Amino acid sequence: MASATSTADISASAPTSYYERHIFFCLNERKGGEECCANHRAQQAFDRCKSQVKAAGLSGAGKVRVNKAGCLDRCAAGPVAVVYPEAVWYTYVDESDIDEIVESHLKNGRVVERLLTPPHLGR
What we know:
By secondary structure, the chain is of the alpha+beta class. The protein has 3 helices and 4 strands, in the order H-E-H-E-E-E-H. A 4-stranded mixed β-sheet has the order 2-1-3-4, covered by helices on one side. Strand 3 and strand 4 (88-91) form a beta hairpin. The longest helix has 14 residues, at 42-55.
């Protein structure tokens, strides 16, 4: 007879995450001039973050992974990026914002409060 597995059993046997953190940048581009993150230099922000993470020695197994994402459905707050496992949503304007996210959150685990995406803003 098979026994039920409790949540404690699953979490105790769950493997450690390959990365400590992931940051996903919405790079979605909408046709017809519809509002999207791509209209707000999202690709440049992604490129900046990736290079800053690498330069700081934060990339690789057990560290940080910078990922591209399609639509994250938070267009009204765009451009947006989200850091997991904390599920912290950021809105950014320029390279200095990206640098601050890398230094504060990705490197030191401190949320950049001033860049938080307002929770009510969706698509």
